[in-house]
Amino acid sequence: MSDLTLTNARLIDPEAGTETLGTLTVKNGLIASVVAGDTRAEGALDCGGKVLAPGIVDIGVKICEPGERHKESFRTAGMAAAAGGVTTMVTRADTLPAIDTPETLEFVTRRASEDSPVRIAPMAALTKQRAGREMVEIGFLQDAGAVAFSDGDTVTTDTKVLSRAFTYTRSMGALVIAHPQEPGLSKGGAVTSGKFASLKGLPAVSPMAERMGLDRDIALVEMTGVKYHADQITTRRALPALERAKRNGFDVTAGTSIHHLTLNLLDVGDYRTFFKVKPPLRSETDRLAVVEAVSAGVIDTISSMHTPQDEESKRLPFEEAASGAVGLETFLPAALRLYHAGLLSLPQLFRAMALNPSRRLGLPGGRLEVGAPADLVLFDPDAPFVLDRFALRSKSKNTPFDGQRMEGKVIGTWVGGKRVFER
Amino acid sequence: MTFRARHLLGIETLHPIEITSVLDLADEYVALNRASVKHSDTLAGLTQINMFFENSTRTQASFELAGKRLGADVMNMQMQASSIKKGETLIDTALTLNAMHPDLLVVRHPHSGAVDLLAQKVNCAVLNAGDGRHEHPTQALLDALTIRRAKGRLHRLNIAICGDIAHSRVARSNILLLGKMENRVRLVGPPTLVPSGAADWGVEVYDDMAEGLADCDVVMMLRLQKERMDGGFIPSEREYYHRFGLDAAKLAHAKEDAIVMHPGPMNRGVEIDGTIADDINRSVIQEQVEMGVAVRMAAMDLLARNLRAAREAGDD
């Protein structure tokens, strides 16, 4: 007898690339069986033909503990994640102080297990205080549970420091996640350069800065052999370099953010700071090229890049306002825009939002197969709603989707077979 | 007289008819300013606050004089000196000020979009006196009035805007205004000082003064904003003057009756030759200053009318 049976569900298998109507059973927190066809059992939960997919694994969630708990805590982020179908938050190290010692990492793990209904897989900083001068205790941090090493959106400018950190990390078999951006060229840039930026009189950065950053990092990967993941690729011109690196057999993967897949630079409009993200939103041409790259598998993962900011950090002149947007709860409905537009299928989406991130980090989740953890999301992809930012569970309400029409409501979220969200 | 706007934040949102309304009224104020009694009670009883978050002598003096000639109670606030240093946010400053019930708020701020942000938080009329590199609408209006009076029209003219366009809010407002009035606008400057994407604005872009000035009716020079440069846009001032400074030889490419404009303050010997600037047959730089007061009087008059109408209608 299983602990949980979900029947009459549209099962999304990102690994096989299929969607089939069927039944899934859970035992001891693991998926016990996945059967096609309508096999109604007694005590089963009838999913009514709605979509059942592996829970989202979100690389790069910022939870503002320690340091800025007024912006977000493990509890509020965990609740937002559960409501958004995110079953694993891969947390960023760019807190105050940065997560750069085994002691601070242990704090994160402890706080997470106390307060968060969903799983936390913490990242650690790559350099001490994310200052780009000395590497962290990579071995100790790995033992303490760090799944990857990243200085967040801070670029290590000293290439020698970075090459040593890459070399050392390679020997541990750990994954480095970097923010590809040429720091000199992108300095001070608040929006992507072009007609719009010039008309609005905002300091701008050329999209070429991303390609230059990626080119440098790939050269260092070639030199050191490190396992490398670019956090956000958002421009058309960076894609050939990424494709080439993969073709040459380097251990390189890349992600992008849901905001760059669904919004473009014109959305900033009259200095709307909720649309200020890092890197800045790109042109429509770039957006479509990046969507295409996700579809083709050149870009491997999609993240929410959940970055809570309070009202005070955003209610400032655009140049001075903080970057970032919250994304845990809007991640799935925003991604479904791509599905409804016919650009990506559901298996493709869950490959990029669940399977690939899991694989890259060496986690067991992200798939619908026997023996995998029962981290699941059940949702109605067609249910419409208008987003009200004050209804979000995050402490910070800085979403670019406020007031927008969206489709896709989560009905239930399970972590290890335990229901953590119910609508 | 048609002028619907509640604030004057930029040229971008103005309709050509509204621009013409400001200029027509400004013409009347030019006459008042030239009379021996330069006073009217149009704004009597209203409070005008000039908030300058960035140094300015000329623009602030112009707004102050405009307000005083119309009978408003005018107060100047030097914002760098006070609240910014104490860490107060722009919004808090706006709310504090709003509680003093001003009617007209004139704001200059070093960041693009800051004046828009402030206007959302107060219930008086806001005039943008320059925000970052974004807009400087009264400068474009006074330039338009100067051109209209010198050329007899404000359409179908060839107008070259020359120099540091990238850092210039004056250039942006002028490009928008002159475009709306159906003129042919050219931008002339070294490529490092012409913003990217400028070619998509419906203007022609040149990096050679002789080509750019050919057949022009109006030559508008911009100040080379040394304080805005974070390094290395041009090799040297002397090379800049040689290639882009306006002298008699370069001006000879424009029409014989072309006028020369400059928003001031000028760097003589950097972007403009002193003798050209002082040539009363070509230079209208002094007229620009005169038109500045008149245009600001007109703009404040029109905004005050809308403000009073809104208050009578009980909108506030």
Description:
The complex is a heterodimer of chains A (423) and B (316). Chain A is built from 13 helices and 18 strands. Chain A has 423 residues and is α/β, with parallel strands linked by helices. In chain A, 58% of the residues are buried. In chain A, strands 1, 2, 3, 4, 5, 16, 17 and 18 form an 8-stranded mixed sheet that branches. In chain A, strands 6-7-8-9 form a 4-stranded parallel sheet. In chain A, helix 4 (159-172) packs across helix 7 and helix 7 (208-224) packs parallel to helix 8. By secondary structure, chain B is α/β, with parallel strands linked by helices. Chain B has 11 helices and 9 strands. Chain A: This is Dihydroorotase. Chain A: InterPro entries: Amidohydro_3, DHOase, DHOase/Allantoinase_Hydrolase, DHOase_cat, Metal-dep_hydrolase_composite, Metal_Hydrolase.
List the helices and strands and how they pair.
The complex is a heterodimer of chains A (423) and B (316).
Chain A: E1 4-13, E2 18-27, E3 30-36, E4 45-46, E5 51-54, E6 56-61, H1 74-84, E7 86-91, H2 102-115, E8 119-124, H3 138-143, E9 148-149, H4 159-172, E10 175-178, H5 183-186, E11 191-192, H6 195-200, E12 204-205, H7 208-224, E13 227-230, H8 239-247, E14 252-257, H9 258-262, H10 284-296, E15 301-303, H11 311-314, H12 331-340, H13 346-361, E16 376-386, E17 405-415, E18 418-422
Parallel strand pairs in A: 1-4, 1-5, 6-7, 7-8, 8-9, 10-13, 11-12, 13-14, 14-15
Antiparallel strand pairs in A: 1-2, 2-3, 5-16, 16-17, 17-18
Helix pairs in contact in A: 4-7, 7-8
Chain B: H1 16-34, E1 47-52, H2 58-69, E2 73-78, H3 90-98, E3 104-109, H4 114-119, E4 125-131, H5 137-151, E5 158-162, H6 169-180, E6 184-188, E7 204-206, H7 209-213, E8 218-221, H8 237-244, H9 248-251, E9 259-261, H10 274-278, H11 285-312
Parallel strand pairs in B: 1-2, 1-3, 3-4, 5-6, 5-8, 6-7, 8-9
Helix pairs in contact in B: 1-5, 1-11, 2-11, 5-6, 5-11
